[in-house]
Structure formats: C-alpha cells, structure tokens
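User: Modeling request: complex.
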Amino acid sequence: MNNRYPAAPAVTHTFKAFATLRRMAILVLLVVSLWACKDDEQAPKGKFEHGALVINEGAFGGGNGSITYYNTTTGMAEQNIYRNVIGKFAGDVTQSLTIHDDKAYIVLNGDNKIEIADANTFERLGTISDDAIVQPRYLEVVGNYAYLTVQGEYDANYNLVESSVLVIDLSTNKVIKKLETDKGVENIVHAGNYLFASNYYYGQSSTVTVIDPATNAFVKYVDVASGPSGMAVDVNGKLWVISQGDESSVLTRINPSTFEKETTIDLGLSADTDLAITPDKSSLIYYTSGRVYKIAITATTAPSTPFFTIADLGYEYALGVDPENGDIWVGDAPTFTADGKVFIYGADGKSKTTFTSGIGPTNFVFK
Amino acid sequence: MLLRLGFFLAFITTALAAKAQGDSVLLKPVTVYGLPDEKYLAGSQFYTLDSALQKQQDSRHLGEILAFQFPVYFRNYGNGMLSGISLRGTSPSHTAVRWNGININSFSLGQADFSILPTVAFSDVKVHAGGGSARYGSGAFGGTVLLSSVGGSSDILSVSQEVGSYGRYFTSLKGAFRIRKFSSTSSLYRVQAQNDFPIPHLNERQPHAAYWQQGIVEHAQYTISNARRITLDYWYNDAHKEIQPNLGSNNNTDEQDDRNHRFVLSYEQNTAQGFSKITGGFVDDRIVFNNNLTEIVRWIGSASHQFVVAESWHVSGSAEWNHIIGKIKEYGPTSPVEDRVDLAASVQKDFKNVAWSFNLRQPFITHVSAPLLPYIGADVVLFKNAKQTWTLSANASKNFRAPTLNDRYWQDAGARDLLPETSYAAEAGLTWRRQNFNVNTRGFYQWVDQWIQWVPGAQGVYRPRNVKQVRTDGVEAGIEDRVKIGPVVLQGKVAYQFTQAITEKTDNTDIASVGKQLIYTPVHTGSGTFGVLYGTWSLNMFLQYSGTRFTDAANAAMYALDPFLLADMSLNKSYAHGQHGFDFSVQLKNVFATDYQLYSGRAMPGRNINFKISYHLTRKQQ
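Assistant: Request completed. Predicted assembly structure:
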C-alpha cells in the first residue's frame, strides 16, 4: 500500500475513505439506451459509440485515473481512452461518469472537477470547475441541469463538514445552487419526479435526500438503515436502496412519489455498497467478498446462497449489469498499485471472460 | 534470544580478555582516539557531499542535491515537497538517517523526509551505501545518511542571502565564539518560496505549493581538560508546506507542518583507558496535517567505549536505549510506549595490506524479537607502488528494520506481532587510484525478507503483514579526476548505477508485482559533477540522470515516468580581504529546461535562477 506513504498518518485515513465503494447511477442506462436506439440507423458517431466503459480511479494522488473502453462485440479492451489537458490520463481519482446528450461528464474526485468529453469519440470538450466542487462523487442530469453530489471538506478530526448537492446549469457549465445535505452524500438517482441522493458517510448517515428538480429545492429526508449507498429503479418505478445497516446490510424499497418505505429486507450479511439491477428490472444484484447475490424485487427474505462466487477475486470494487444481455460485471482492484481486472459472468451466473482495466476499476457505464 | 545474548557477551568478554592481556604488556600510556566509521566499516562505500555543492546550494534540502552527487533516486512529491530516498534499490524506509549519532527517521512512518533536512543545518553530510545495521541499527538496508552539525568552520560570523525564481528567499546567519574553555557555534536559517512556477507545457502556474522552513542549530562545547569535554547539540526545524497537488487539481487545501526538536548532550573522555562517550538525548517529532497533530517523543541514552589492544586492535562496545512514546490519536486512547535497547561491539585491525573489521549488534525491542546482526568487511591492497594503488573491498552483513509504530499500533489495523524485516547483503568492489585519477566499480546484492506491506483483508481493511521478499542487486562504476593546466584546475566525477530491485514473493493481492521492479526505483541512475577553478572564480556543473521509473507494481509502460537528465550550473566568485570574505554565486537550475517528474503527476519547475551573496568574518590568524 504505497499510497499510505505520502504525508503523515493522515493519508491512511483518507485512503480508507476511498476504499469504500463507488457505484454507478443505473439511470444512466435508461438515458443511454434511449439514445442508442434512436441512432441505430445513422452513421457511427465515433469509435466508442457502443460498448462499455470502465471507470478506473487510478492510484490515489497519482493523477493516473483512466477510462477503459470494452467493445462488447469483439471482446477487445482499449485502455486510457480519455486524456485531460495534461495529456496523459483522465485525472486523479476518476470517480464516475455520466453520459447526457452525447457528452460524457467525468467526475474527478481527486482533482475536484468535472471533465467533459465527447461520449462517442472521447475528445476533450472542457472542464467544469468551481470552488464548491470539493470531493465530488456522482452526477445525474435532469433536463438542462446536472446534480452533483460533493462530500466537501474534512475538518481536523476527519469529519465531513459540508456535504451538498450542487446544481450545475449545463448551458453555461456554472454551479448555480448549493443544496446542503446530510454528511457523506454519495449516489444520486432520478426516480419518478424527484432526485434521490444517498447519504452514506461510512454508515454514519442514515438518510436519503429528496430534491425536486422542478424547483431545484430540497424536499425532505427519508430515513433508512444506516449507510445508504447504491440505488436502482425497478420495473415498477420503485427506488431500491442498499444500506450498510447496523448488524447486517439492508435493502429498502421507497415509493418515489409518496416517499413511503414499502419494504425492508435484512440481507443477513455485510454487503458491499454497490447495487445493480437486471435488464428486466425485476431482480437486484449485490455482492460481498466475491459472492454475488441475486434477489427478486418481489422477495421478502434474502437468498441464503450466492448466485455465483468468484474464487480468485482480489478486492471487489465495482458491480454492474449489462442492460442488453444481463451479463454481470465485477471490478477487481487488488491493491491500487497495478492495473485491475474485470470479471464478466453471464446472466446465468457462469463465468464468461475477464479483461484488464486501469488501476482501481470503480464503476461501469454501458452504452 | 538467550543464545544470542550469550554469543554477544562471549564476544565482549573475549575482547576484554584480549585487552587485559594487552594492558599487562603495554604499560606506557597511549593516546586513543575514536576511529571514524569508515574504519569500523571496512570494505564499505562512503560518499561525502562535495563541499562546493554544499556551500553553493546549502539553501536546498538534501533530497534536492544528493542525487547530483552519486547514483541515488529521490521521489519528491513536487518541488520542495515530501522527499523519500531510494538508495541501492530499496524503498525510503530502508535508509537510516542519523544526526550527531542518533536515528532521526520518523518512528511512525519509518522513513525520513529529506525535504525537512535543509543542507544549511549540517556541517558534514556523508552517506554509507549498503547494509549497515550492525553499526547503524534499524533500517540500514540501502544505506545510512550520516549528518552532523558540529561546526568546525573558522568563521566567527557568516551571513548569506539568496533571491531566486518563484518568490524564493533564503537567509542564514551563523556565529561562533570561544571564551576560554567554552565554545559555541549557532546557526539560524529561513527559506521561503511562493513556488508558483509555470507548469512546463501548460499555460498555468503551479497552485498551492508555497512553503517556508526555518530553524536553529546550536553546538556548544565545554572543554574540561585536554581529554574531557561536554558537548551540547540542539536542532529545531520548523517547516510549513502547502501540499502541492497533482497536475490539474483544483480546490486544494492540504497543509502540513513538521516541527522537530532534537537535543543531544554528551560527555566524552579520551584517556589511556580509551575513548568513552556518554550521551543523553531527546527528540520530539511533530507533524500537523490539516490541524491534526501527531507526535512521537523519544528519550535516548547511550554509552560507548573504544580502546586499543595489542597496539593495533581497535575494539569498541556500545549500548543505546530509546524510550519511545507514540502520541498519535489513531493509536488509541493510551499512547503506546516502547523501549529499544541495542548492544553493539566492533573490532578493527589494520594489517600490512589488509584493513579488516567485524561488527555485531543485538537489538531488543518491546514485543519484537530482533535478530543478531553481524557485519564483516575488509579492504585489501592488491597492488601498490609510488604511482598507483589497486584495492579490493568486500563486506557482508545481516540487517534488520523494526516495524514502525504505525505498523504495530494503528488501531484496528496494526499488528503487535509483526516480525522485523531482515536482509542479507554482500558486496565487493575494486578501486584503482593513480594520483588524482580514481576508478571504482562495485557489485552488490541484498535479499530482504519479511518486508512489511499493508494489504487488504476482510471488509477491505488494510493491515500490515510480513508478506514480501525482495532481491536487489546491481553494479556501480565511478570515475574521478582532477588536473591542473597552468592556473586552471579541472575536476570531474561521474558515476553510474545499474540496479534491479525485484519482488520475489508477496501477498496474493499484489501478485502483479512478482518478478517486477519496485516502483520509483530506476534501473539506470547516473550523476556527475564538473568544476573549473581559476583563482577566485569557479564554474560548476552538476548532473543527474534517472532512467524510466515505474509507478505501478506491474511495471506498465502507461504509468511509467520518462527518463530525464537534469543539469544545474553555477558561477562563483570570492573576494577576501584580511578577515573579511565575500562570496557571490549565480545558479542556473534545470539548465536544459527538462520536463520531468519525480513522483507521478507532480510538476517540477523548468529553468530557474538563484542569486546568492554571503559575507564571512574569519578568526584572526594566531
């Protein structure tokens, strides 16, 4: 763990922060697949128009976060497809990527900025920077506004002090509003008429923030089990949230119109923070220590046995499901000191293939 | 452990018996002086910091200038930022740094940060390359940096002022006096830099990298008699840094302060019975990272005795005790306290053509079982006549590094039962000297076992474990010459090192590193210094070369840093009038505007300039 080395023991502390998982905003898939269908008849827009992207954090502080493109047709991977103005990598701690309107918004947690790329060619289009962008995590787009979760500064005791959701006007790329939220805000998803942001804070926060994109105003907090992180929207339009919980992890189903908690399922184990959903949006996928679980949205109790197990996994760091064929992807980031690996399992839970990613694969985007 | 102690005591007893025998024969009083480390580490390689470089660039920290002197690599996290040494293919915690005889590596992190070792604070800088734990204790795998601040200059007063690029200013003031049996040398220094250099190839200036550093060094001495004296050394260094972020990063606020108090009080006596030294010391290392304080306090006591038996057998024995208190929040509500005791003995003998030495050390550390550490070495003159000398040098040693306090006491991660890292090292070299012309080559090998690495375990928690085995080996060659052509003196020194530092075995999570070169450890390293002296003028050029450095464990080309050649030049002129002297110096740094990085993603400045003026008042010639 060479990135323990930088400055003071403090770094180990910071590192722990990054060791918690990042997850993808599943809603991106909806948006992307819509665009993809529409453009089928036209000439290719670029080399990276169809396929999957692996978002690789890079070594913390090393500025070598990267994006891997995986051609799902040929099974070929291409590393480091996006270069920032420095010209070598995407930046420091590439956290997540959201595609909207043929633009890829790359959230750089270490660099405190958003890089904008052409989503099909990955040519650089620009940067969104603002003093309020401190430890950004995830971005969701509704209409012409982007909603960016930011953890904010740590104080001297490593407490987060000003987590918020920033509203960015995508016509000017300026931050126009800061909505304060509970500490450690993480994922953000658009479900029904509202935006839902999970306040994780390594299990110390236990709410989901509701924001009304029509007014860009805070609506309310929904209380859930401690440490909510990954979210997904099911076939019935219901929002699912996975929480770390006190004893074991918990799945909560929330009605996105009434904000009622309709179901809670104790998973009976300590799951990782990612949550994915199958293409029919009827089953949820979660994992822990190489064991991948599948649970139907109609279930009332958690499965006792895993759907499948990945034996030779170093350190699971990303989870995703290909919305076209239901393949389950797991990212492996053994030490953050060398390139990671992606395991692909079929919708039937059988191992299909693996490929090399950049350092610290943390999220997948399918397009 | 008992067996080791027994072995150790037997060694001492034999030495003492030999002395007793010697005494009975030798009744006349002899003057015994403490031998320098070079003699007790026969067969070893030492580098001394070039005095011209030290004088001209004493406003720089050691991590900025040592790589111009001999093949070594420093991973500097930006300009003026954290600086870790990679000596002979080892990592930064595998080089011991000692100041006036006490270890000053960070006891929490293991390594020494060379950016808080300002050259101005030292009167003497020496580096021992290779395994030396038997003499220098924990962490002396790649080598040991030996610093001293004992004054020794003939100046009564000296003042220096520098002005340089990117808002850089340096001031130093040194004074010395002697009143009868008491003498004192004091220095004050301060360097500060805006450090907003233009980032090469980017239309931006480096944000958030300003720093300042200041300190005081005091060396006082009271001579009781010709043979007895008391010395006091105190050094306080206070450094503040805005942490230089990686290229293209915004909104950075990280700041770090390092405040280090080091105090050593010694009594020395040199009598017919030998040379004895008793030392008491205190070290307080504070790091304030974003207003979060960590502190390690250390009390040190040591005693040593050197004597001569049978006229030419030098024997020394020493005991050192460190009492360490780790006041770090992350270690838990009760600050861990530990004691380290080292017992060491050495013997040295010069035969006609062979200088030979043997050292033995046994450390004892709370909760840690440390191995017995031998060192054996010799310098053999193969051939010698009036014009030239051929010398063969060789040594072998066993070395160790104690787990750091972080490794052992970090709450919910540290492991009390970690084993110390151990290494076996051996090297051999050949030197040919013909007047001022000197060629030397050396091959070295080291096997490090129980290397500690933090690896992820259940729930993604990283814990330190003894998982790694590393082999380092390589060869080094150097040429040095000095010629006089009329009134002009030309001198030059170049050196090259080929180093392999290969992970042989490690934890499954880091399997990608097996068979690969350690990160930030260049295979090829070079250094060169050239000087032209003409009367009171001198022109110097300093070079350092570093080959490709991998920054990821699997050695992927994509993350590697490109090789670079860095050059500094300086033009100097001195005036002397009676006791008064003035020195002027212009330094051009990074002459070729090399675009380089010493740590992934951290910019370094292009060509920049520095002016220096100094005045010194020397003692009246007696």
